[in-house]
Amino acid sequence: MKKFKNEAALLKMAIDIGEKYAMNRGYKGFSGTNSAKEKVECLYLLLVQDKLIQALAKGQENQPNMKHKLALWIAKQLPENHPLLKD
């Protein structure tokens, strides 16, 4: 599993963009009381359902792996020379 140096920043960007994607799909958005854990799980499941990311194997569906999948998803959307992708 490739680890990014800026994985936390990539995850934050993935949550922001993922929330906009979810709203375009008809989701009303997250409330101020939703935790980051809930947002990660919700966005992960939405992206898997829409076949934008591959689901994790059974038994591997945990928060660290979901966060990594979201970071990978957003990293693939960014141009190669984006500052967050530099090592």
UniProtKB/TrEMBL annotation:
Pfam families with a match to the protein in the record: DUF5062 (PF16691)
Superkingdom of the organism of origin: Bacteria
InterPro entries assigned to the protein according to its UniProt record, in alphabetical order: DUF5062, DUF5062_sf
Protein name: DUF5062 family protein
Lineage per the UniProt record: Bacteria, Pseudomonadati, Pseudomonadota, Gammaproteobacteria, Alteromonadales
